[in-house]
Design a protein that fits this description.
Elements (H helix, E strand, L loop, with lengths): L1 E5 L6 H11 L8 E4 L6 H15 L8 E3 L8 H4 L4 E4 L4 H10 L2 H10 L3 E5 L1 H4 L16 E2 L9 E2 L8 E2 L4 E5 L6 E5 L8
Parallel strand pairs: 1-5, 2-3, 2-4, 4-5, 6-8
Antiparallel strand pairs: 1-9, 7-10, 9-10
Length: 193
């Protein structure tokens, strides 16, 4: 399992380096599936170039990035040809509805279970937590993004005791459940509020 849940993408050098390390191959040959589906309002659309730049600044060729707006599903076998799935932010409810309605939820879950690498940004992270019904159920609690203060850096105990809070400069790294969860990046930890 290789999942990186963030508020703002590859915002720090540490998070970027973690992504590159998890990809495990020459970044010029990495094939990425870029999902902007949640960007349904002007504010979210304005962030899409920054999200695309996350992949480009790591050395992924624009020729190797496919944009998929989830108008239809994708079979698990087809999804397996991508080295990374990058899910952008915006409207979490809309994104989750599209993922479930197209059957992409099943393909994405199988992709993750087979070692596929996923980066979630804001709404693209929230779909994996208990924030909404019919979520993808990767973590057993709610996830809060864009927080002023986040979780303490380091390993998280399973099962999670409460909401996981992410600042824009930290990420929840999930390698293996139940013991492979940790906070990386700059968390601005201020204790539980």
């Amino acid at each position: 399992m290789r999942v990186l849940l963030t508020s703002a993408g590859l915002e720090t050098e540490e998070i970027k380096a973690c992504f590159v390390d998890m990809a495990g191959k020459d970044m010029a040959s990495v094939k990425a599936l870029f999902i902007p589906t949640a960007a349904v309002d002007a504010e979210a659309v304005k962030v899409l170039p920054k999200c695309m730049n996350d992949l480009l600044k790591c050395g992924i060729s624009d020729r190797n990035i496919r944009v998929c707006d989830l108008h239809e599903g994708m079979e698990a076998a087809q999804l397996q040809q991508y080295d990374v799935v990058y899910i952008c932010g915006g409207n979490t409810q809309y994104l989750l509805e599209r993922i479930n309605d197209t059957g992409f939820n099943k393909s994405l879950t199988e992709y993750i279970d087979n070692g596929g690498l996923v980066i979630g940004v804001s709404a693209g992270s929230l779909i994996f937590a208990n924030n909404l019904p019919d979520n993808l159920g990767l973590i057993d609690t709610k996830l809060d993004v864009h927080c002023a203060a986040g979780e303490k850096r380091g390993k998280l105990a399973w099962p999670l005791k409460g909401n996981v809070r992410l600042t824009d400069t930290c990420a929840l790294l999930i390698r293996n459940l139940p013991d492979g969860m940790e906070i990386i990046g700059e968390s601005c930890y201020a204790g539980r509020i």
